[in-house]
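Hi P.,

Sorry for the delay on this. The queue was packed all week, but I finally got your sequence through. Input first:
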Amino acid sequence: MTQRIGIYPGTFDPITLGHADIIRRGSTLVDKLILGVTTNPSKNPMFSTEERLSMVEREVAELNLGNVEVVGFNALLVKFARKQGANVLIRGLRAVADFEYEYQMAGMNQQLDDEIETVFLMADVSLQPIASKLVKEIALFGGDITPFVSPAVRADVDKRVAEKGLLGDY
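Then the structure:
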């Protein structure tokens, strides 16, 4: 039987409790789950690729999952998946807006390689509003991100915000 290798790609800037939920659940669907930490300059990253890789590796170690590996990449997702021997792409969905984008991406990926299947996992209801972009925004305006990230990630974000300075003074 062929080993089922999955890729859960993302910028993870920063990694949230929502990501951790998808990682935990996704890891049960495959023999090996590779977290593909990628670059996306259009997302205006708070952390460098190296910092995000380190952060994700630390958070994955805390999850204590034996079949999860963290790999950085800067390539077309299906090319990265092929190189890793993956046959499944795992994507998390929070809302209908996510579905429209992810549906389009799944279709494009299928056109590029029809042997790689996309699996969508709905975010846990309690974690659905969490998005890295919003976590960064809340932190940059001095809000409390404790409900959305682990204590270690919160410390990383707090440190970066202290370096950059708050955006507002309300």
